[in-house]
Design goal:
It is a single chain. By secondary structure, the chain is an alpha/beta fold. The protein has one domain: Vaccinia Virus protein VP39 (Rossmann fold, 3-Layer(aba) Sandwich), CATH 3.40.50.150. Helix content is 26%, strand content 30%. It has 7 helices and 11 strands. The strands form 2 sheets. It has a 7-stranded mixed beta sheet with strand order 7-6-5-8-9-11-10. Strands 1-2-4-3 form a 4-stranded antiparallel beta sheet. Helix 5 runs parallel beside helix 7. The longest helix has 13 residues. The chain is globular.
Length: 239
Amino acid sequence: MPKSPHKLSSLPPLSPLPPNVYSIQDAGRARLATRNLIPGTRVYGEKLVSRDGIEYRLWSPHRSKLAAMIEKGMTIPIAPDSNILYLGAASGTTASHISDIVTDGRVFAVEFAPRVMRDLIGVCTKRKNMVPILADATKPSSYRAIAGNVDVIYQDVAQPNQAEIAIDNARECLKPGGHLIMVIKARSVDSTANPKHVFEQELTKLDIEFEVLGKKGLEPFHRDHLALVARRLHQEDLG
């Protein structure tokens, strides 16, 4: 009998995997994977693996910062019915794996570059729980009517004002008590500063409206990147 894909043989034992995310034995080692929402289809050339009649998409932490966060043992607050606002969706690599996870929710995928947006639209056409939005993440009021109040903001943008973008989007679109999953890219904020100082600076800004629940550097998968999970404070918590 084949081994259960739920086996956590090489992943941190203290942090449960998100729903529809598994550790699967492939080529002699455990690999992260999501249960494929659209069996038989690939998004970016990823390997498809079948176990007990169920198809999974292998998910590399070198290709996806969210996968790196999971590999590093971070707890990811995403449920099957979560509505996600994804800022910086690019061509849909990580967004499509989130689509696998939120089978009863939606991914509102915001991307600014028209050329990349064409690829993202192709992914969303097949995945009915993904909504492509061509917009500037610094102007959340432009897509507030589309996304509404979401449960989670996932932010992966290469801009200098990353904390401000997170705060502005939370004020427009994130439910009180909702979660922010964010990747701070030190070299995008300030290419000359010490990454540690950049991280401290951005975290201080976020303290205005968020309680940081966990944070980790993403080495060896992504250099000079700090990932964090935070909860948006309720109005009464803000004093």
